[in-house]
Amino acid sequence: xxxxxxxxxxxxxxxxxxxxxxxxxxxxxxxxxxxxxxxxxxxxxxxxxxxxxxxxxxxxxxxxxxxxxxxxxxxxxxxxxxxxxxxxxxxxxxxxxxxxxxxxxxxxxxxxxxxxxxxxxxxxxxxxxxxxxxxxxxxxxxxxxxxxxxxxxxxxxxxxxxxxxxxxxxxxxxxxxxxxxxxxxxxxxxxxxxxxxxxxxxxxxxxxxxxxxxxxxxxxxxxxxxxxxxxxxxxxxxxxxxxxxxxxxxxxxxxxxxxxxxxxxxxxxxxxxxxxxxxxxxxxxxxxxxxxxxxxxxxxxxxxxxxxxxxxxxxxxxxxxxxxxxxxxxxxxxxxxxxxxxxxxxxxxxxxxxxxxxxxxxxxxxxxxxxxxxxxxxxxxxxxxxxxxxxxxxxxxxxxxxxxxxxxxxxxxxxxxxxxxxx
Length: 423
Ligand code: NAD
Hints:
Number of helices: 16
Distance between the termini: 52 Å
Bound molecules: nicotinamide-adenine-dinucleotide
């Protein structure tokens, strides 16, 4: 099928590359010319396992990137995967969605074939119907007989995005009429997964609800972890016993420094905000966010309990990405921790296998070490923020520290004397 995808970020690029692998003819429309150049050379501007190989195999053949919307005129289906970042009040900023919709509509003005516009970005319920549809139809000067609309939320996890896209747990397709939904289903016909057909707003709400539930599991585990630490109980033993209950399940029960990334914090905030507009106060989800905001600061408190003031001390921070296998630092729990350390006058020596260069935009003046050993050399304390597999293999590198005070925010070290945030 001829597919255009507007937005060549994490979701758009992974989606487009995987659709190309499935044999579709894909054009990525991306406003950032640097990204377009890189994608056309077969070099993904982001790191994702397996993405570079797939892109190299298909770039210039089944996938092209462009800053222009020309491909939309011949597309059978157009996906929107632009960002929906949070506004200062927590609600979703839909301006990128709106402007992409208008550009798509303008490109469909003079076409005659039926085309379906699909929202893949995470958007508040009602967005496809009340913002995307009118913007596209208005700019195109057409009716819904000529352009169909669907909502197809994305559930991929960064770091495992290609694998998740090709082997999803489910494919959710929301549409207001079956014809539009059928076309979306056709694109996925070679992927084996349960397909759930819903209305537009239910599809939008499924994505927010999934993320809110997973975030709740994490904050819940962190609260239990905090009290377990206090009582001298191993929260990982506790959660192992709890997770064996099939009604609960074993995943997302790992207590630690909290959730980050481009989705959970922003999507839970957006849900709280849209509920407020609807006259509902989501007390539980507000607390989920509250626990998550407080959690990383405990790392610094535990460090100070052992070390005393961090003023003038060299503190190694291992891990900057919000999780392993990605260079994404959006809402990474390392950010509030580093800010705390800087506010208290510490010298921060940071190391991450991938995310150092991106973090330089946030903290230009901290030290970026080129290895964990370099960060640890002479350090008075160490905070482990990301579950990178290479950190779990560290051992004698810790002997380079001036004071072997190690606090981990993810349970990955087996060395004696390491203190965990919740254990
Ligand atoms: P991103 O910021 O990585 O990518 C968005 C891209 O869209 C950027 O490259 C930007 O330059 C481009 N863009 C913005 N306006 C444009 C326009 N008018 N025309 C063309 N390109 C435009 O964001 P992302 O992480 O890919 O997320 C996209 C959406 O998918 C968000 O709503 C997010 O919540 C959702 N989502 C993300 C993930 C994830 O793990 N990252 C998972 C599921 C869903």
